[in-house]
Design a protein that fits this description.
The structure holds two protein chains of two kinds. Chain A is an alpha/beta fold. Helices cover about 30% and strands about 25% of the residues of chain A. Chain A has one domain: P-loop containing nucleotide triphosphate hydrolases (Rossmann fold), CATH 3.40.50. Classes of the chains: A alpha/beta, B alpha+beta.
Amino acid sequence: MAHGIRIENLSKRYGTGDTAVDALKNVNMAVAPGAVVGLIGPSGSGKSTLLKCLGAVIKPTTGKMILGDDVIFDNDWKIKDLRALRRDKIGFVFQAPYLIPFLDVTDNIALLPMLAGVPNKEARARARALLEALDVASRARAMPAQLSGGEQQRVAIARGLINRPPVILADEPTAPLDSTRALAVIRILNDMAQRYQTAIIVVTHDEKIIPTFKRIYHIRDGVTYEEAGEGRAIL
Amino acid sequence: MISLAGRDILHSWGKFVFTGFGLGLLIGVTLTMAGVYRGMIDDAQVLLDNSGADLWVVQQDTQGPYAESSSIYDDIWRRVASYPGVAQAASVTYFTMQVRHGTRDVRALVTGIVTSELDAPGWPRFLIAGRQITKDHYEAVADVASGLQLGCVIQIRRNRYTVVGLTRRMVSSGGDPMIFIPLKDAQEAQFLKDNDAIIEQRHRTEASPVYNRPGVPGLLNAVISTQSTNPTVNAVLLRIKPGFNSHAITEQIQRWNRLQVFDRAGMEAILTGKLIATSAKQIGMFLVILAIVSAAIVAFIMYTLTLGKIREIAVLKLIGTRNRRIASMILQQAIGLGLIGFAVGKISSTLWAPIFPKYILLTPMDALYGLIAVMMICALASVLAIRAALRVDPAEAIGG
């Protein structure tokens, strides 16, 4: 089976000797293309560490990570250019949208393919197509400060999707939103995951959206437990 | 690829323009300081150009008449005028004083010139109004920078002079306007004592048994007579005939007359190398301090701007932006700030230079050097901000 992302026995240890802390202990996780899973856990459980490892921002201590068809980590990085890996293979959606304030909506999204060397015209065309899909095309020339919170988050999702990555890591994407907008964001993530066959991992504390996941990974003291979610439909 | 720096500047143009404006005023001051230095050099060269001399004959072992006082007899010009190759020779005096005009006074370099010979060395050149001095007494030609006008009556010591001509850019090496008067009047003004001092000296001479000897008639009168006149000038200016070697003439005069002779290069070296050397060093120090202050301001601004964008930089890094692109963005912004500052500085210095009391010479080359210096300072000043940006961990974009 093709996989969006799969991790096997992933561990992360901070420090050495007596002060060593095992933030992740043999974590296993597999998210298929087109699936949206929740990653839930209390503060200090290792959520952010796992997200940073998956995002190739910090180096795991041991384990294996497979992204799409590529082994990217097997007790060491198998990819030299981690920046290019993050740019081309991993999409990020943050708690706050963190759009670049001096770029308009289109260029905020088009920046990623431009960084990868895609010509400006083509990158902007791809950005506009995504904005259409996310129903914010009318704000294409607006600056981030002119958008509502929900619109900003949709633009952030578009930015995460623009390079068609096998996986999107969403770090509490609904935290600043009210129930209606939070559920709208989750619906969009589900739609996009289906449309672009992207695996999406949503780290969240948000009780409103947890029932919408079909699969949930709980993390506690660096260990994950998988369970089936309610998969409640979003109206 | 879009220009991140350009977009950021356009987005927060008010911040950049106002910061650039402040920096620009500082750059304007820096360019003006350089202009003051150039003006001093130019004043010195103009003084030499306008004297119309090829050689300056002054007192032995002095560097007169501009940098040091020099006193030579006023008949020496006859002797040196007879040397082969000398076209014209004329005595001159120079002294700086407060020239009274009505209720105010003007600081000026009063120059005594011979009036008997047309266009003699030392004569004011390039009159812009009026005429040259034609009488042997009580006429003056003044530079417009003195604020005097044709027909004004000025007082130099005990005599009054009518301004009959006006010149432009006839100034001393210190930038004081020159006022030309006949040589005899200038000698009197420079060397003659006031009435009280003359009477006091006569009494002293009469009381002295050395000069007032019984049985030596005429001695006292002769001594008093020599004390009442001063047959000296500061320098003799020489013009050389075409085709003659100034070095040979200089050597002959120095050897046989026990006088010091300077050519144009020597006099220029004295004026620029010695007379204004301290001022030049002061201006140099100011320029260094202003450069350091400008660099510190740019560094502080860029550092503050960068710290305000830490999260955006973390996001940029996380989504794969290379360090060199982020460094380039900050460098371009610093350069942009410098360009705005330089434009404001150039315009402001050009606008305020004419109203300065001293002559300010803003040269295109100085502007070019200034631009290069500003760019280098901005590039250097951005290093701190670039370091801060490069230290940003992309993980900062991810919570927890």
